[in-house]
Amino acid sequence: MATMKRWSRVGLVVLALVGAGCGEGAKFVQVTDTGGVVIYPFKGDNHLVSSFRPEAFQLIEKQCAGAYSIVREGEAKSRTRVAAPVQGAEEAIRERRWGIEFRCK
User: Model-level pTM?
Assistant: First the structure.
Protein backbone atom coordinates (compact mmCIF):
# COMPACT_ATOMS: atom_id res chain seq x y z
CA MET A 1 0.00 0.00 0.00
CA ALA A 2 2.87 2.40 0.80
CA THR A 3 4.43 1.67 -2.58
CA MET A 4 1.16 2.52 -4.33
CA LYS A 5 0.92 5.84 -2.47
CA ARG A 6 4.50 6.68 -3.42
CA TRP A 7 3.83 5.95 -7.12
CA SER A 8 0.65 8.00 -6.96
CA ARG A 9 2.61 10.96 -5.61
CA VAL A 10 5.30 10.52 -8.26
CA GLY A 11 2.60 10.42 -10.94
CA LEU A 12 1.01 13.62 -9.65
CA VAL A 13 4.36 15.42 -9.57
CA VAL A 14 5.14 14.32 -13.13
CA LEU A 15 1.72 15.49 -14.35
CA ALA A 16 2.17 18.84 -12.62
CA LEU A 17 5.59 19.33 -14.21
CA VAL A 18 4.34 18.38 -17.66
CA GLY A 19 1.35 20.70 -17.29
CA ALA A 20 3.57 23.55 -16.15
CA GLY A 21 5.85 23.08 -19.16
CA CYS A 22 2.94 23.07 -21.59
CA GLY A 23 1.12 25.96 -19.93
CA GLU A 24 3.29 28.67 -21.41
CA GLY A 25 1.66 30.19 -24.45
CA ALA A 26 2.11 33.42 -26.37
CA LYS A 27 3.59 36.32 -24.42
CA PHE A 28 5.15 39.73 -24.88
CA VAL A 29 8.91 40.02 -24.51
CA GLN A 30 8.93 43.70 -25.46
CA VAL A 31 6.17 46.31 -25.48
CA THR A 32 6.37 49.99 -26.44
CA ASP A 33 3.81 52.66 -27.27
CA THR A 34 4.39 51.99 -30.96
CA GLY A 35 4.70 48.19 -31.07
CA GLY A 36 6.63 45.32 -29.57
CA VAL A 37 7.62 41.68 -29.84
CA VAL A 38 5.52 38.65 -28.98
CA ILE A 39 6.81 35.06 -28.87
CA TYR A 40 5.10 31.69 -28.78
CA PRO A 41 6.28 28.08 -28.51
CA PHE A 42 6.14 25.65 -31.42
CA LYS A 43 7.16 22.09 -32.11
CA GLY A 44 8.49 20.47 -35.24
CA ASP A 45 9.50 22.41 -38.31
CA ASN A 46 6.35 24.45 -38.94
CA HIS A 47 5.59 27.38 -36.64
CA LEU A 48 2.46 28.21 -38.66
CA VAL A 49 0.53 25.26 -37.24
CA SER A 50 1.26 26.06 -33.60
CA SER A 51 -1.91 26.33 -31.55
CA PHE A 52 -0.35 29.43 -29.93
CA ARG A 53 -0.01 31.45 -33.16
CA PRO A 54 -3.62 32.76 -33.08
CA GLU A 55 -3.11 33.69 -29.42
CA ALA A 56 -0.01 35.71 -30.41
CA PHE A 57 -2.02 37.68 -32.97
CA GLN A 58 -4.79 38.28 -30.44
CA LEU A 59 -2.23 39.85 -28.10
CA ILE A 60 -0.93 42.04 -30.92
CA GLU A 61 -4.43 43.14 -31.95
CA LYS A 62 -5.31 44.02 -28.36
CA GLN A 63 -2.06 45.98 -27.86
CA CYS A 64 -2.58 47.96 -31.08
CA ALA A 65 -6.35 48.34 -30.85
CA GLY A 66 -6.65 46.36 -34.08
CA ALA A 67 -4.36 48.12 -36.57
CA TYR A 68 -0.78 46.86 -36.90
CA SER A 69 1.87 45.75 -39.34
CA ILE A 70 4.41 42.95 -38.99
CA VAL A 71 7.97 44.29 -39.11
CA ARG A 72 9.61 40.86 -39.12
CA GLU A 73 9.26 37.41 -37.68
CA GLY A 74 11.54 34.46 -37.15
CA GLU A 75 12.76 31.86 -34.73
CA ALA A 76 13.65 33.37 -31.37
CA LYS A 77 16.34 32.11 -29.06
CA SER A 78 15.39 28.64 -27.86
CA ARG A 79 16.08 27.13 -24.50
CA THR A 80 16.86 23.64 -23.36
CA ARG A 81 15.53 22.31 -20.11
CA VAL A 82 16.23 19.05 -18.36
CA ALA A 83 13.29 16.92 -17.35
CA ALA A 84 13.49 13.89 -15.10
CA PRO A 85 10.16 12.05 -15.48
CA VAL A 86 11.67 9.05 -13.75
CA GLN A 87 14.35 9.38 -11.11
CA GLY A 88 17.76 8.85 -12.69
CA ALA A 89 16.49 9.19 -16.27
CA GLU A 90 17.05 12.79 -17.33
CA GLU A 91 16.01 14.04 -20.73
CA ALA A 92 17.00 17.31 -22.44
CA ILE A 93 14.02 19.05 -24.03
CA ARG A 94 14.60 21.84 -26.54
CA GLU A 95 11.84 24.42 -26.43
CA ARG A 96 11.56 26.34 -29.69
CA ARG A 97 9.92 29.77 -29.91
CA TRP A 98 8.78 31.97 -32.79
CA GLY A 99 8.96 35.74 -32.50
CA ILE A 100 6.86 38.39 -34.20
CA GLU A 101 7.95 42.04 -34.15
CA PHE A 102 5.05 44.39 -34.86
CA ARG A 103 4.31 48.08 -35.16
CA CYS A 104 0.98 49.64 -34.30
CA LYS A 105 -0.61 51.91 -36.93
Answer: 0.67
